C-alpha cells in the first residue's frame, strides 16, 4: 500500500522516485464529464524549520514555471496541501528516460540506438537549452539560466515521439533566492564539466559540455569519462581524456566526431559558444547523412525496442508502491550514521593528483591540495537507500582556502550517510585529529623545557 493517497487535489497512483529533499509520485486529477489527466507530483519532505529547502523548492517551481518550450516539461501548479506539504505538479511524459533506453540497448538481442534517434534527442535538448540560456525576465534582463545537470536520466523520451528536458532542481539562475555555496559540487559525476570539477565560475557552456557527453554516449553506447573510481572519472574530465568515437564504432562519421570533440573541449572558450550553434551543426550532419530529425526517428526506435506504452507494465514502468522514506527507517539510518561517525578510524594518506593540479594552475587557480587515496572502505554502513538522483557533494573548502578537498573515500561515505535533506554528511578522520593533538602537546612540552632551561 502507498503511504500517501492524496496530495492536494491529486490522487496518488504510484511512487516514481526518491530525491534529495522529497518524493516524486505519479498522480491524476479528475473533472466533469469523465475528465482525467495524469501528472507527476514532486513533494518536499523536510522539517518545518528548514526554510532554506523550502526556498530552494519554490525556486525550482518559479524557474520552471517561467519556461515555455516544446522540449521542456512544463509545471502546472505549485502549492501546499492540508498537511503542510509543499508540492509541484508537472507534466507526465508517457515514456522513459534516455538512460533507460540506453541501458536497454545493451540487453540481449535489442538493436543498437540508431544515429537518427540520437541526433533527434540531442537536437531537441540543444534547442531547449538555447531557449533557457537566452531567456530574459519581465524587466528585460537575462536570467542566466544554467541547468547544470544535463544527463541521460534527465531526458524523457515519449513512446509516441517527443523529447523533454526535466529536473531544473539545481539550475543556476540570476533570480534565484538561494545561491550555490562556494566550493559546492552540483551534478552527476559522469556529466560534470571541467570547470564544475575545479570549482571555477560556471556559465551556459557547462550545459554544452554535458550535452556533448550525452551525444557521445548515445552514439557509441559507452560512457565517456567513467573510470574505476569517482576520482579517476573527475580527473579524466579535467584532462579531456576519452576514447574517440571512431575508435569504438567502425565507420563513425567524421563530421559527427568533430562535433563531439568541440563540445567536449576542456576550455569553455574552445567549445560551441551557444546551444543553437551545436543544434545547427547537428542538423547539417543529419542532412548530410540522410537522417531525419524528429518524432518519426524516436517512435521507430521505441517500437524496435518493444516499448510502445500499450501494456500496463510499460505505462507505469517507473512506478512503485514501495516508499523508502519511512520516518522510522530514516531515524534508524541517521542513528547508524552517528555511530559510524564516532567509530571511524580511517587513516589519512595524502597523494598528489597531477592532472587536476596542472589544469588548476593553467586556469589561474591556486594549486590544488593533496587528495586522499582511491581505496574505498569495505565496512560501509548498511544504510537503506533513500536518495537516488541527488548527487550534491559539498567540498570541504572554498577555492581560496588551503584545506584539502573531499576524497573519493569521503564521497563514498557522504553518499551512504546523506540525510533526507540532500546535504552530504562527512565522516571526520579521528586518527588524524589525535595525531595533530599529540604533536601540539609535544611542542608545548618542548617549549616549556626550553623556557625553564633559559630561566636558570
Structural description of this entry:
The structure is a single chain. This protein has helices at 51-65, 98-104, 115-134, 194-197, 205-220, 230-239, 245-248, 254-263, 275-289, 295-304, 312-315, 327-343, 354-362, 408-417, 430-455; strands spanning 6-7, 10-18, 23-30, 36-43, 75-80, 86-91, 95-97, 155-158, 163-165, 184-185, 393-394. The chain is α+β, with helices and mostly antiparallel strands and 456 residues long. The chain folds into three domains: 6-91, Phosphorylase Kinase, domain 1 (2-Layer Sandwich), CATH 3.30.200; 95-308, Transferase(Phosphotransferase) domain 1 (Transferase(Phosphotransferase), domain 1, Orthogonal Bundle), CATH 1.10.510.10; 327-370 and 388-428, no CATH class. The strands form three sheets. A six-stranded antiparallel sheet has the order 1-2-3-4-6-5. A three-stranded antiparallel sheet has the order 7-8-9. The chain has a two-stranded antiparallel sheet with strand order 10-11. A hairpin with a 5-residue loop joins strand 3 (23-30) and strand 4 (36-43). Helix 3 (115-134) runs antiparallel to helix 9 (275-289) and helix 5 (205-220) packs antiparallel against helix 8 (254-263). The protein is globular. The relative contact order is 0.12. The model is unreliable at 173-184, 312-330, 340-360 and 366-428 (pLDDT under 50).
Question: What order do the helices and strands come in, and which of them pair?
Answer:
Layout: E1 6-7, E2 10-18, E3 23-30, E4 36-43, H1 51-65, E5 75-80, E6 86-91, E7 95-97, H2 98-104, H3 115-134, E8 155-158, E9 163-165, E10 184-185, H4 194-197, H5 205-220, H6 230-239, H7 245-248, H8 254-263, H9 275-289, H10 295-304, H11 312-315, H12 327-343, H13 354-362, E11 393-394, H14 408-417, H15 430-455
Antiparallel strand pairs: 1-2, 2-3, 3-4, 4-6, 5-6, 7-8, 8-9, 10-11
Amino acid at each position: 500500500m502507498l503511504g500517501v493517497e492524496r496530495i492536494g487535489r491529486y490522487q496518488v497512483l504510484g511512487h516514481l522516485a526518491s530525491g534529495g529533499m522529497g518524493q516524486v509520485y505519479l498522480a491524476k486529477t479528475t473533472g466533469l464529464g469523465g475528465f482525467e489527466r495524469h501528472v507527476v507530483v514532486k513533494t518536499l519532505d523536510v522539517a518545518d524549520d528548514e526554510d532554506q529547502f523550502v526556498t530552494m523548492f519554490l525556486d525550482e517551481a518559479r524557474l520552471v514555471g517561467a519556461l515555455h518550450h516544446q522540449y521542456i516539461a512544463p509545471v502546472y501548479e505549485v502549492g501546499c496541501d492540508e498537511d503542510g506539504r509543499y508540492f509541484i505538479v508537472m507534466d507526465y511524459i508517457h515514456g522513459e528516460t534516455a538512460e533507460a533506453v540506453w541501458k536497454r540497448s545493451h540487453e540481449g538481442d535489442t538493436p543498437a540506438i540508431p544515429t537518427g534517434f540520437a541526433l533527434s534527442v540531442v537536437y531537441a535538448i540543444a534547442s531547449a537549452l538555447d531557449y533557457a540560456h537566452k531567456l530574459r525576465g519581465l524587466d528585460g534582463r537575462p536570467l542566466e539560466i544554467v541547468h547544470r545537470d544535463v544527463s541521460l536520466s534527465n531526458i524523457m523520451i515519449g513512446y509516441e515521439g517527443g523529447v523533454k528536458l526535466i529536473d531544473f532542481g539545481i539550475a543556476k539562475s540570476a533570480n534565484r533566492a538561494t545561491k550555490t555555496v562556494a566550493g559546492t559540487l552540483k551534478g552527476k559525476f559522469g556529466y560534470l564539466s571541467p570547470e564544475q570539477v575545479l570549482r571555477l565560475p560556471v556559465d551556459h557552456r557547462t550545459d554544452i559540455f554535458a550535452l556533448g557527453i550525452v551525444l557521445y554516449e548515445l552514439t557509441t553506447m559507452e560512457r565517456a569519462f567513467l573510470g574505476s573510481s569517482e576520482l579517476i572519472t573527475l580527473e579524466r574530465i579535467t584532462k579531456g581524456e576519452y576514447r574517440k568515437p571512431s575508435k569504438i564504432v567502425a565507420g563513425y562519421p567524421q563530421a559527427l566526431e568533430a562535433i563531439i570533440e568541440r563540445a567536449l573541449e576542456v576550455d569553455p572558450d574552445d567549445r560551441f559558444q551557444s546551444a543553437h550553434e551545436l543544434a545547427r551543426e547537428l542538423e547539417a550532419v543529419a542532412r548530410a547523412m540522410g537522417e531525419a530529425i524528429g518524432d518519426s526517428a524516436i517512435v521507430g526506435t521505441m517500437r524496435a525496442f518493444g516499448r510502445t506504452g500499450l501494456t500496463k507494465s510499460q505505462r507505469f514502468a517507473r512506478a512503485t508502491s514501495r516508499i523508502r522514506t519511512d520516518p522510522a527507517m530514516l531515524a534508524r539510518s541517521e542513528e547508524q550514521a552517528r555511530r559510524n561517525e564516532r567509530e571511524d578510524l580511517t587513516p589519512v594518506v595524502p597523494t598528489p593528483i597531477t592532472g587536476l593540479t596542472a589544469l588548476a594552475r593553467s586556469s589561474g587557480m591556486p594549486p590544488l591540495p593533496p587528495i586522499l587515496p582511491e581505496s574505498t572502505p569495505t565496512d560501509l554502513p548498511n544504510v537503506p537507500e533513500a536518495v537516488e538522483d541527488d548527487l550534491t557533494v559539498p567540498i570541504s573548502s572554498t577555492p581560496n582556502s588551503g584545506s584539502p578537498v573531499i576524497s573519493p573515500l569521503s564521497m563514498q561515505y557522504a553518499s551512504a550517510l546523506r540525510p533526507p535533506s540532500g546535504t552530504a554528511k562527512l565522516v571526520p578522520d579521528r586518527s588524524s585529529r589525535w595525531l595533530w593533538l599529540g604533536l601540539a602537546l609535544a611542542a608545548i612540552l618542548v617549549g616549556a623545557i626550553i623556557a625553564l632551561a633559559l630561566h636558570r
